[in-house]
Design brief:
The structure is a homodimer. By secondary structure, the first copy, chain A, is an alpha/beta fold. Chain A contains 10 helices and 12 strands. In chain A, the strands form 3 sheets. Chain A has a 5-stranded mixed β-sheet, with helices on both faces. In chain A, strands 10-9-8-11-12 form a 5-stranded mixed β-sheet. In chain A, strands 5-6 form a two-stranded antiparallel ribbon. In chain A, a hairpin with a 2-residue loop joins strand 2 and strand 3. In chain A, about 55% of the residues are buried. At the A-B interface, helix 6 of A face helix 6 of B.
Chain lengths: ~300, ~300
């Protein structure tokens, strides 16, 4: 019997679901907005039930917004925990889907899933240590360290680091309900929109919003470089869709590091060091499918 | 023939050397101040030559201040690279000692060595992921992630993350020659001394220096928690010798995280989550010896 996986990219704005096994075998893809847990998870279940009528699914992988409980031996494994997203805190995402469909469901963070997709098929191939950062509705980071997904105590929450914030230059107080002006509070898509009074997509490339955004993101990346020393940084998410932004981020990273981390990757080839995802918006969905694969087949060999 | 290792804790202020194999077998320990490379490395060589007259040494491990090149296949492996410490940039620490003594010499950062010592015999036993931070002449961090020492592109330089710095509260500009008011620039021992005009050891426990120091260190730890999600944080170094400091750091970490990282380790048992080294000042020396052991015997099983 063939093995067919389901994948869910469970984002704070929309959910994407598909079945398949790899980059070249992905089908029946669908997406819908993230509304209430009951409605959204109901649509997930309906979609996969329809698929199950056509062929048996082996298991489903989820890359989810969070924070989520990713510890397989925890009693709340697969729950979304303290998310600021209204209605979603303490939602048993894995349990609800698993119970309805009768097949195993595994979960990691959206960013770890995206990192895994990029490790297997994209910009992280062959690397032992890299991070994947998303800059969109929120800011989050995950990645591979010493050839395994980053977990630890729970999982990284890279968007919530504290960074310098000069209120003389930028009086906007930040929008994180937990921390105010953490990185996510200052530099997520909604923070840009709230600060400038218009959606990021409508701000022209020469608008001062972008140099400020590039500075905040670069401080974040500098802190991740100093903390983790990743071999590469992949930056995705809706805000990075602005083509003028990434070159500004790279310039700011070099300026802020100021020659201290002296490597050709940063000093000479930063265009290959800080990059966009190669899988674009499908990194998370593909990574969710790869997540099932590695959890069934062993943890450390993706992308090798 | 018995196996005897040498260990060197190569600090920016002093060098400690010893021979032995473990926590319970450490002998002929000596220490001297870090002066010029020629004089300091000369004393290292003299010490180990004397030891070699009594018994054959198998290899030597070094935990060094840095930045250092820890990549064994690099042409500058074992060099101190861009350190702000006068005279020491581009010093071939491994090569000079190896050539003089005729035995293999291996090197990692001082903080990775200390982490390794704590992993094998101290506060990091049994953990897959933890960090070791030192707060003294400089601020540096290393650790174990997914059961292996942290390396990546080069190695972490945790002291150089950027943190919020309100110049209305603290007008001191910071002393890092590369970054000014990075974490090390604001919170290292010399920064405390320069800000308040007296040595940290002489500042009374109730002096406002300590609440400011605790705040800066806590912001650093919060950023490391959000970036790495370590299972524990071990904080050593001379500045942590102030007994009033660690409780203040823990309080600030909880306040700054503000319930976002909801785990019993942080919310209920932070006294066991942010801890002093169990090996005290000998973590680095013991870790240097353990470094030889794991590099000769395989990388990932220390402390298991």
């Amino acid at each position: 019997m063939s093995t067919v996986y389901g994948g869910i990219d469970a984002g704070g704005t929309k959910f994407i679901c598909a079945v398949g096994n790899s980059l070249d075998d992905l089908r029946a893809e669908t997406q819908f907005p993230t509304t209430t847990p009951t409605e959204t998870i109901g649509r997930v279940i309906s979609f996969f039930r329809e698929q199950q009528e056509q062929e048996a699914l082996t298991a489903i992988g989820i890359g989810s917004f969070g924070p989520v409980d990713t510890n397989p031996i925890s009693s709340t494994y697969g729950h979304i925990t303290t998310t600021p997203k209204p209605g979603w805190a303490q939602t048993d995402l894995v349990g609800m889907i698993q119970d309805a469909l009768g097949i195993p469901v595994v979960l990691d963070t959206d960013v770890n899933a995206a990192a895994l997709g990029e490790h297997r098929w994209g910009a992280g191939q062959g690397l032992d240590s890299f991070i994947y950062l998303t800059v969109g509705t929120g800011i989050g980071g995950g990645g591979i360290m010493n050839s395994q997904l980053m977990h630890g105590l729970i999982h990284p929450e890279m968007g919530h680091i504290r960074i310098p914030h000069d209120r003389n230059i930028d009086p906007y107080p930040g929008l994180c309900p937990y921390h105010g002006d953490c990185l996510e509070g200052l530099a997520s898509g909604p923070a840009i929109e709230a600060r400038w009074g218009q959606s990021p997509e409508t701000l022209p490339a020469a608008h001062p919003a972008w140099s400020l955004e590039a500075y905040y993101l670069a401080v974040g990346l500098v802190n991740f470089i100093c903390t983790l020393s990743p071999q590469r940084i992949i930056v995705g998410g809706g805000v990075m869709g602005q083509p003028q932004l990434l070159p500004l981020v790279r310039e700011n990273v070099q300026r802020l590091l100021n020659g201290y981390v002296r490597t050709p990757q940063i000093e000479e080839e930063i265009d290959k060091y800080i990059v966009l995802p190669h899988l674009g918006k499908r990194a998370g969905l593909l990574g969710a499918i790869e997540l099932v694969h590695i959890l069934r087949c062993g943890k450390t060999d993706a992308g090798k």
